[in-house]
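Bench log, entry 3. Co-assembly request; chain sequences pasted below exactly as received.
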Amino acid sequence: MPERAAAALLFLLLAGIGRPEVERGAGVELAPARKGELVHLLRHDCGSCHGLTMKGGLGPPLLPETLRDKDPEGLVVTVLYGRPGTPMPPWKHELAEAEARFLVELLVEGRVP
Amino acid sequence: MKRRTAIGLGVAAPLLASRRARAACPELRGTGDLVVVVERARGSVLIAETTGRTVLGRVEGLGDLSHGSLVFSRDARFAFVFGRDGGLSKVDLLERRLVGRILQAGNAIGGAISQDGRLVAVANYEPGGVRLFDSATLGPLAEVAAVGSDGKRSKVVGLVDTAEGGFAFTLYDSGEIWLLDPSDLSAPRITRFAGIGSLPYDANVTPDGRFYLAGLFGEDGIVLLDLWHVEAGPRRILDGYGRGEAPLPVYKMPHLEGRGAAGEHLLLPAVGRHEVLVVDKRSWQEVARIPTPGQPVFVVVRPDGREAWVSLAHPHNGKVAILDLERLEPAGTLSPGRAILHLEFTPRGEQVWLSARDDDRVVVLDTRRREVLASLPADKPSGIFSTARAHRIGS
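Structure output for the full assembly:
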């Protein structure tokens, strides 16, 4: 049993659930490892609707030319709270505000690695 | 004399090519035990065999394969691969090389092949519509612009083959089902059914080719069109299956699988819920809902109809749920790898091939013992397609 619990804890840590709160807060520089995870999420999980290369799919393209004229804070709100009535889901259970802002910046600046 | 030499040269090239091909593929073999695995980020496919469970080779240069899918030629020699970037590629499974490729649209979602094998149809998001190509040459044959009743071009989803060489597809933005009769390619005939419901996200046809079903994202319900009686028009089944409860956020769109059919039952993923809906195929009434440890994405019935294996949406996509279709209840959960995106049974169901994207592996399980038979390296694998699909309606 203790072994199991330890394995479960390890899993939670690996999954990033046990991460210290400071890293997830707003206005805090994200750790490089977390940035890597976020880019992975962007390419693959956001990419399942917006396309791996963000050129659009069921969801609209998320390219500098389509996002540049939009209010970045509005886009952060879209990422965190979704767009009710459309397939765009809220990500607030998975992403802190600073993390959503990091993704929006990557997208607006066309810097998705 | 001069002419002769020219002809001589002309035949030399194909001869060389086939000699090279023979070197790459030393033995004669069939294609009936092959699977094709999409490597979504690398833009390639792996060709593997399910007898010894080995990878035979990789074919690259297929473009952006996020949501990459494919259909087979009716002799199961070639795969037609549909890329997100609008690419349509023809891959020779035996010589394991690209034999044709065109960029036919800006953004595509999938495709189908006609029952006589002559036409390859592609469903496009941008520009919204369906284009038809000659399966031999990939030459363009016809285009249907999906202009909905709202006057706007719509994204197309759920493109499948139907009887008499035709196709059925669904307009996502305007909520319509269209039937395409390509017998006159210069003016394909379209039958339209508008107002089917809000945001149909995917559609498919039952394995007998009779019932075309479209899942709705904007409403709780499924649209059903009986292709034996199209004059009756589409109707709604499972209306309000959410019972008014707010759905969970959907992080990954479910797929409607023709292979969700088992005997008198049809299994359907509930959108935004942790359950699979079971419908009676005669009354179209719900007979059960089976809980799953996450939102179902692919609900695939094992070919013997005794179990269904279900892949799940992020953040539960490390698990695969198994459902007992005799008792209509859960029959276990496996954790075969990280980010299981797709699963495919061998034609008789003794093995299942699963793509574990975040492990960069394809995992093969014995479906009775639920034991790992093989684990093969693959670069961000997604869809897995058995050549048995060459002989199935709707795939």
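The CA atoms of residues 6 and 12 of chain A lie 10 Å apart. Residues 3-24+32-108 of chain A form a domain with the Cytochrome Bc1 Complex; Chain D, domain 2 fold (CATH 1.10.760.10).
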